[in-house]
Amino acid sequence: MMKIRELGHIVLYVSDLERSRRFYGEVLGWDEIVGDVPLGVPAAGFTSGRTHHELLLIEVGPSAAAIPKGRRLGLYHFGLKVGESDDDLREVVEHLAAHGVPINGASDHTVTHSLYISDPDGNEIELYVDVLPREEWGDPAAVFAPIRPLRL
Description:
3 helices, alpha+beta, 2,3-Dihydroxybiphenyl 1,2-Dioxygenase, domain 1, 5-stranded mixed beta sheet, 2 domains, 4-stranded mixed beta sheet
């Protein structure tokens, strides 16, 4: 039987590689592993150090169709762990404000405390810290608890 061991990487099409490269590298703090990936198109790879690459950006240009607003099929958001505590999340709030990145939402999911932002192309990103001890992650009542507003 096949079993997924971990989420390995995300590949995003972007309209402007340099703009997205600055956002993911300078604002979110990913380490760029290689510039101008040899794919025959402009591309860049990033890692947090966990694996060889966790994010690959491929430029498709400004004429590509934008992500439709509202309910649709496909990616809703992806989550990035940004620390170990609410203090870490408060620092993220300050960092985002200093870079002019608006926060679209903030939620207490019982398991995590989360902020939501969008990248330059409209992909939603959850920036979170785990707040429930690992030994309680298997409790569906905790994992799927009602979402409450986050108070930092």
